[in-house]
Amino acid sequence: MQVEKYKLDGFNNDLLADHKRRFEFVAADVANVDDVLQKLEAFQIAIPSWALGTGGTRFGRFSGGGEPRSLEEKIEDVGVLHALNKSSGAISLHIPWDIPQNHQAIKTLAAQHGLRFDAMNSNTFQDQAGAPESYKFGSLQHIDKAVRDQAIAHNIEVIKQGIELGSKSLTVWLADGSSFPGQLNFRGAFERTLDSLKQIYAALPDDWKLYLEYKCYEPNFYSTTVADWGQSLLYVTKLGPKAYTLVDLGHHLPNANIEQIVSLLLMEGRLAGFHFNDSKYGDDDLTVGSINPYQLFLIFNELVEGMDARGMNHATDLGWMIDASHNLKDPIEDLLQSIQAIQIAYAQALIVDKEALVAAQKVNDVALAQEILQKAYRTDVRALVSEASLRAGGAIDPIGAYRKLQVRENLIKERGAKTVATGL
Ligand code: AOS
Ligand code: ZN
Ligand code: ZN
């Protein structure tokens, strides 16, 4: 399945007059409009290979039609996303779910769709067929050295897979922890995990980064061995300059001030990047921006301010990824919505009047500071996002185009109505 350019152009032409009117209206009020458009065009968000099929809950899984049955088909789906919005130019693989049979062929296929390989993800939270050791009681923290060694070797294997594909980072998310008081010694678990991570770190090429993701609970419900940003920061500081803390938005206790965490990790030069999603209760992995878009904007406000203060390149200096699961919606539509939500928050952060904000902060004008942020947040920037997509060769309205071009119907024709995506 390919999105044909002439069909996309036809779709855009029908919307063009309306779009131009909306764009000019918002552009008239934005002083730095060219800069905003250029930054939006450069901004790419990696798609996780595991989000291309319907997920599920422990109560059931209801697969949709035309889901990708192989790594090749997952790449094809990300190709569809990227053709529609020109902002999904990368895929993040999970090993062993996505082991390529032929690295060169996979690289060529990805390149044909304009995609690169983002962070590689290791998996020591499930037992793999034929593996001698079990991760039931943890992996890098395990009391038994044989289990730790198996988990370390797996991570090193994932790095090797990534080198072949041109990836530059390894994301480690650990399910390790305990579900009952007394089950483990916290200090012992930390020390063993650190020792295991050091061995993985030692296998990282010089131009690679290790992203250490934290999560407050689940699957363990009493303690998690990398539970929060402080613990992740402790590990990565001890590991060395190639280790960074990854923020998954759904991995915090309720009401955590994520934007403040982001600001301080950036300040310390230890922010790896993101797993974007949204949540109401826990690690819900809902569509980005579907529950709390103001928080997303506040995070981007800190990112833009903090990255500019450090002279960082917004598009390339952090890892931008989505981590989502879809139980009800078409996964591709859900991802298009997520990306649009990220672009909207980013565009709003780019139009914040920073000088005025700094001036208001200097004189403790609290009301004005709030007004300045909310003015940006309440600006309807959707036409700016559409314009950036159009200029890059994508759709004015990616979901509208996806439906009009009948992409899902075509995928079902090609792959069948009853397919189950490989992976989780
Ligand atoms: C788990 O909760 C983490 O968010 C992981 O980043 C990710 O969801 C997992 O590696 C994919 O199953
Ligand atoms: Zn995650
Ligand atoms: Zn998660």
What does it look like?
InterPro entries: L-rhamnose_isomerase (IPR050337), Xyl_isomerase-like_sf (IPR036237). Keywords: Isomerase, Manganese, Metal-binding. This is Xylose isomerase domain-containing protein TIM barrel. The chain has 424 residues and is of the alpha/beta class. It has a single domain (5-415), classed as TIM Barrel (Alpha-Beta Barrel), CATH 3.20.20. The protein is 48% helix and 9% strand. It is built from 15 helices and 11 strands. It has helices spanning 5-27, 33-42, 71-85, 103-112, 145-165, 186-202, 229-239, 258-267, 293-309, 331-350, 354-362, 366-377, 382-392, 398-404, 407-415; strands at 47-48, 90-92, 116-117, 120-121, 169-172, 177-178, 209-213, 223-224, 243-248, 271-276, 319-322. It has a 6-stranded parallel sheet with strand order 4-5-7-9-10-11. β4, α5 (145-165) and β5 form a beta-alpha-beta unit. α9 (293-309) crosses α10 (331-350). The mean pLDDT is 97. Bound molecules: D-allose (AOS) and zinc ion (ZN) (2 copies). Residues 50, 121, 173, 213, 215, 248, 275, 283, 323, 424 line the site of D-allose.
